[in-house]
Amino acid sequence: xxxxxxxxxxxxxxxxxxxxxxxxxxxxxxxxxxxxxxxxxxxxxxxxxxxxxxxxxxxxxxxxxxxxxxxxxxxxxxxxxxxxxxxxxxxxxxxxxxxxxxxxxxxxxxxxxxxxxxxxxxxxxxxxxxxxxxxxxxxxxxxxxxxxxxxxxxxxxxxxxxxxxxxxxxxxxxxxxxxxxxxxxxxxxxxxxxxxxxxxxxxxxxxxxxxxxxxxxxxxxxxxxxxxxxxxxxxxxxxxxxxxxxxxxxxxxxxxxxxxxxxxxxxxxxxxxxxxxxxxxxxxxxxxxxxxxxxxxxxxxxxxxxxxxxxxxxxxxxxxxxxxxxxxxxxxxxxxxxxxxxxxxxxxxxxxxxxxxxxxxxxxxxxxxxxxxxxxxxxxxxxxxxxxxxxxxxxxxxxxxxxxxxxxxxxxxxxxxxxxxxxxxxxxxxxxxxxxxxxxxxxxxxxxxxxxxxxxxxxxxxxxxxxxxxxxxxxxxxxxxxxxxxxxxxxxxxxxxxxxxxxxxxxxxxxxxxxxxxxxxxxxxxxxxxxxxxxxxxxxxxxxxxxxxxxxxxxxxxxxxxxxxxxxxxxxxxxxxxxxxxxxxxxxxxxxxxxxxxxxxxxxxxxxxxxxxxxxxxxxxxxxxxxxxxxxxxxxxxxxxxxxxxxxxxxxxxxxxxxxxxxxxxxx
Length: 668
Fold this sequence. Notes:
Layout: H1 33-41, E1 54-59, H2 61-68, H3 72-79, E2 87-90, H4 99-104, E3 110-114, H5 121-128, E4 134-138, E5 144-145, E6 152-153, E7 215-220, H6 238-241, E8 260-262, H7 281-290, E9 313-318, E10 320-321, E11 324-325, H8 328-340, E12 345-348, E13 350-351, H9 360-366, H10 368-378, E14 392-396, E15 415-420, E16 438-441, E17 459-462, E18 471-474, H11 477-498, H12 504-512, E19 515-516, E20 527-530, E21 533-536, E22 548-549, H13 551-559, E23 563-567, E24 571-575, H14 577-580, E25 588-593, H15 596-602, E26 609-611, E27 614-618, E28 623-633, E29 647-658
Parallel strand pairs: 7-9, 7-12, 8-9, 12-14, 14-15, 15-16, 23-29
Antiparallel strand pairs: 1-3, 1-4, 2-3, 5-13, 6-18, 10-11, 17-18, 19-22, 20-21, 24-27, 25-28, 26-27, 28-29
């Protein structure tokens, strides 16, 4: 009997499959018996890109039970009689932490057979498809990163002004170029740059800049964990760090996974960032989320802490190497690893092109292994932060300028992020429309570039010196996605600080409604350049998701403080009915109070006051802060002492001053 390399998945106790043969069947159209059998069992595309030399197989209950009873060799001999194979093993090479849930999802029934790459995958599939042990056959499909992966090294020039007019709160010298964090409308970024067209994080940092108990798994190309601006915010598996090299010290099935693991085929698990063709994509993504703030070097980030070692942590789950992608199997393993090792957010800037799947069911039935890995990650049993009842999965919407999101991001269980430029308008590459949930800065070279040295309308972040530079410009919905993950990480950090807990539905709802309006710039039409072409803005009206993410608004919703928006530089009135009831115009107001920091942040032209039941306020600066309005409940005077009167009541209100706000509309 032939001997095969066996890595048996240690899943015990029988469970019914979640993938039925009916779910995965397709009409018989092929002429040969093998092709006919394949057509009845094939799941997933055979036309798109996939890994050569391997095939995913979904086995029936009896065969899976035989393998679990030690008959792996016998099963392999029967299924592959007359065929040359290299290995036959479980699709998940390591036992998941939550064995029972994995079995409920049918993950124990997926296996991989490897063979010579010179044999066409379809030929091999047709040769085994008729075997009764096999219920479904899937090519190991590969996704694409949602970026052109062109990393342009950062080269500051004296002739270029900084992107930030106000000094950022951290001493990271390059943060003046990060319009995505603080957009002052600087015309050296783009002639059409809009003040306030950023993620609204400047004032959110006053409440939290991230906490180490929030772990974000970057499922992507490698994160360079020795990068001077990332090292202090990397997730650390202490048992492996302090253990013996080459030994699985923490018994999680992975050897030497100190900062994460490399799932790319043919790797030995070691994170590899200097492979030929590497772009630095994963490291760039990680820097947007959690480059170390306040360390006096490089860039700032959304959730990289306050300079006191308090940023969120990055776990690197490598599935791309040297510009090449792992397949469905490797993506599934990475997502499950993230769940099993403490990540509460999966950051995924990749996907299948928008043209591949036409509906949720098409994706679910054609990528069942990855879909069930995502379900494993978001199942409440695997929640990894006390403030969330289930983990979050965030995907890039895609870069084909298509009218629907890439999958898996288009799934309702995931958040799909579209891309904006510094003008608060869609970038020409971004997907939009069906399945797209929310927008964030992704960069837009074509509205700012005048020569190769001028890339300030893209996103500046960390990169890999071995292949580009320690810092570089990139663009794509790949870059929009980590803005969303970073803001979500801030939200989870703040919820933890306040001792609050949210269901997945609750947190997702407040996340997707913590936005600023961008439709005001799209409704009237107009055109925007994209390379040598132009496109109509009206195409994107109401199709970029709920709006542009705003970190301050998210923290206010988590806190429970209502927010109102005002237009910077204009006298604005805020109806107080929503805060003091329908009779707000008839009650007596005492005062509007605020601290010096709020006055400085909002730049009050005069003291805010209440007139005829409305708050009158003039803010001369973009910013977010809170004011307190106090009033008398009942009568024109307060009770107490010799008086008979009413009780003092007060409401704290978040004031958001934005240059991008329209008085005719906007998200509150």
